[in-house]
Amino acid sequence: MLYNRKAWKHVFKLDPAKSLTSDQIREVCQSGTDAIVVGGTDNVTLEGVINLLSQIRMYSIPCVLEVSTVDAITPGFDFYDIPIVLNSQEKKWVLDAQHQAIKQFGPMIDWSELTTEGYVILNPEAKAYQLTNCYLPDREDVIAYAQMAEQMFNLPILYLEYSGTYGDPELVRQVKQHLNKTQLVYGGGITTLEQAKEMAQYADTIVVGNSLYDNFAESIETVHVKK
After folding, report:
1. Which end of the chain has fewer CB atoms at under 10 Å, N or C?
2. Which of 79, 222, 102 is nearest to 156 (CA)?
3. How far from each other are the two terminal CA atoms of the chain, in whole angstroms?
4. Which CATH number fits domain 5-226: 3.30.40.10, 3.90.1700.10, 3.20.20.390, 2.20.25.90?
5. Is 159 annotated as a binding residue?
6. Is residue 68 annotated as involved in ligand binding?
């Protein structure tokens, strides 16, 4: 099935290494969110991904696997998002990991299902920041990454990731001013509808994830940003 990802305003992100009840997963999938992303940093296993996918597929909602390890890739998702960590200090996370995955799985890839996303990770305390050996960019750095993503690399998505902490709306606003074709995705620390509305003023798509495991009811309310 074809989906217009540019129309997605709100997305829930589920971590296969964390737990929600079946009723909670049903509520997430039927909440009115535009899509479900499956992804995480620690302890992402094929078993966990398949288990989560099987529950999500009971409902008619787009489902995306954000690939963090090739060992957890499985058929059945609508899209496979490939992160390119632009502010990593290691070439591995910009090019080499992706190269090895394509070398291994290239003949099996349906390229129409694959989407590359330029990641800028902006929380030094985040596990993803530490794993990928990032440096903390300043405002000018982030804007330059946005320009590179759109003008040089033609990336369909630029993802500003604060991962567990609420970010800077003014920076998101400034980044958006430099993007015309590339979709701006914001994720990190959104726990309330008010925060969702604030970031949705500037980002094309907001991602709500960690708060589902900390304050489920309030997190579900963030979907009303679409109204």
Report:
1. N
2. 79
3. 25
4. 3.20.20.390
5. yes
6. no
Q: Is 162 annotated as a binding residue?
A: yes
* CA 196 – CA 202 distance, rounded (Å): 11
- Enumerate the domain spans of the chain: 5-226
- What is d(CA 49, CA 72) in angstroms, rounded to the nearest whole number? 7
User: Tokens 């440096």 correspond to what residue?
Assistant: 135
Identify the bridge partners of residue 121 per DSSP, sorted by sequence position.
Answer: 161
Question: Both tokens of residue 180?
Answer: 């015309």
210 annotated as belonging to a binding site for a ligand: yes
Distances (CA, A) of 35 to 14, 103, 163: 11, 29, 19
Q: Known binder of ligand: residue 76?
A: no
Contact in structure between 55 and 23 (CB atoms under 8 Å): no
Any binding-site annotation on 15?
A: yes
Chain centroid to CA 142: 17
Q: Is 13 annotated as a binding residue?
A: yes
135 is in an annotated binding site: no
Q: Any binding-site annotation on 161?
A: yes
pTM: 0.95
Question: For the segment 62-112, what is each residue's pLDDT rounded down to a tens digit?
Answer: 999 999 888 888 899 999 999 999 999 999 999 998 888 888 888 888 898
Query: Side-chain half-sphere of 214: how many Cα atoms within 13 Å?
Result: 9
The pLDDT tens digits for 180-191 are 999 999 999 999
Structure tokens, 216: 């489920």
Identify which of 218, 211, 165, 221 has the alpha carbon closest to the alpha carbon of residue 18: 211
